[in-house]
């Protein structure tokens, strides 16, 4: 982490809001930069800077806190919630997408953030990470369309029976979205598998080759000679896979395999075929992400067809309401 700390470039010291530690204040959010999360609680804040900061090539405003523990250094960006939402929308979807799709994403990003503030602030030193583990967040690209979409939905979140929902969403589904219990092991009254339209997504069909070295490391196997699909979810995604070395067999959930491969190596569990080659395994499939909740590319298509953001959100999260949170800023 020393390299990361040294790579922080303070580009312009500016006067910014001083953020309190009111655990009920959802006007700001605490973002752990990166996806490396501490496993111990021996952390101590050693420095805070109020500046625009460049970290590994990405720009962040607000405050940057440097925390140190036995596992190294960790960086926290403390930023106003609405600025955070702008960064998420710019990072998660195309910045030139239809306005209604951008608005739908803005409401979901804000809802996701508020739910995690409520869940995490009383027990952790950060609310969310800046990676795909939660929501991708950078401030590098901001276009007028994103600013407009976030500003016009300012403070709006999705609620169910008065509480912020768990606003799961993903990049692309083909055919249907996934049932939440297949991924997260839990049912939600406002989440269910729904049919989705065809989209111009680049993830409609994909092929990925994963080397034996990568698979053996992820699965803790010495050798892999065969891979089989054992079961499917109700939506047709792969549920379980079996890896064999010729004598011993190992069964693993497809969702867990994606996690072990750091998500992007295997775009989704909607796997259509598997071929074992000389140097690795070729997976062919469709879609991108876990498949639960709003399909971002489907929102793009629905917006193109004239649906507004409220209609898009109601389709993917039936029974929810748009509520405006009380902000302190």
Describe the protein's architecture and organization:
By secondary structure, this protein is of the alpha+beta class. The protein folds into two domains: 199 residues, no CATH class; 80 residues, no CATH class. The chain contains nine helices and 18 strands. Strand 12 and strand 13 form a beta hairpin. The two termini are 34 Å apart.
Topology (SSEs and partners):
Blueprint lengths: L1 H5 L2 E5 L14 E5 L11 E12 L2 E3 L2 E7 L2 E9 H12 L6 H22 L7 E2 L14 H9 L3 E5 L2 E2 L4 E2 L9 H5 L21 E6 H8 L6 E7 L5 E7 L4 E5 H7 L10 E6 L3 E6 L8 E2 H9 L4 H8 L4 E4 L5
Parallel strand pairs: 2-7, 10-17
Antiparallel strand pairs: 1-3, 2-6, 3-4, 3-5, 5-6, 8-9, 8-18, 11-16, 12-13, 13-14, 15-16
Short description:
The protein is 26% helix and 29% strand.
State the helix count. Answer: 9
How does the helix and strand content classify structurally?
alpha+beta
Shape: globular
End-to-end C-alpha gap: 34 Å
Main beta-sheet annotation: 7 strands, mixed
Rg calc: 21 Å
Note the beta-strand portion. Answer: 25-35%
Percent in helix: 25-40%
Key terms for this structure?
3-stranded antiparallel sheet, 329 residues
């Amino acid at each position: 982490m020393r390299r990361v700390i040294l790579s922080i470039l303070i580009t312009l010291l500016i006067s910014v809001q001083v953020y309190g530690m009111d655990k009920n204040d959802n006007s700001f959010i605490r973002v752990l930069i990166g996806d490396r999360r501490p496993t111990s609680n021996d952390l101590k804040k050693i420095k805070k800077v109020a500046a625009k900061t460049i970290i590994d090539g990405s720009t962040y405003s607000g405050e940057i806190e440097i925390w140190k523990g036995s596992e190294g250094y960790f960086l926290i960006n403390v930023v106003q919630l609405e600025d955070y939402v702008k960064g998420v929308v710019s990072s998660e979807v195309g910045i030139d997408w239809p306005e209604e799709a951008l608005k739908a994403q803005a409401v979901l990003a804000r809802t996701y953030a508020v739910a995690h503030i409520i869940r995490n602030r009383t027990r952790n030193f950060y609310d969310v990470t800046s990676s795909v583990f939660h929501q991708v967040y950078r401030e590098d690209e901001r276009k007028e369309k994103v600013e407009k979409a976030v500003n016009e939905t300012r403070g709006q979140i999705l609620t169910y029976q008065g509480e912020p929902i768990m606003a799961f969403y993903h990049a692309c589904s083909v055919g249907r979205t996934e049932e939440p219990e297949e991924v997260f092991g839990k049912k939600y009254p406002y989440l269910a598998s729904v049919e989705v339209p065809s989209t111009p997504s680049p993830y409609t069909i994909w092929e990925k080759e994963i080397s034996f070295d990568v698979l053996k490391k992820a699965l803790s196997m010495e050798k892999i000679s065969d891979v089989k699909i054992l079961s499917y979810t109700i939506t047709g995604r792969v549920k379980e896979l079996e890896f064999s070395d010729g004598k011993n067999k190992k069964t693993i959930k497809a969702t867990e395999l994606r996690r072990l491969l750091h998500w992007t190596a295997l775009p989704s569990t909607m796997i259509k075929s598997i071929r074992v080659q000389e140097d690795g395994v070729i997976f062919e499939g469709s879609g991108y992400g876990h498949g639960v909740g709003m399909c971002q590319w489907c929102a793009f298509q629905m917006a193109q067809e004239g649906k507004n953001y409220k209609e898009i959100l109601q389709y993917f999260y039936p029974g929810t309401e748009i509520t405006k949170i009380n902000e302190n800023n």
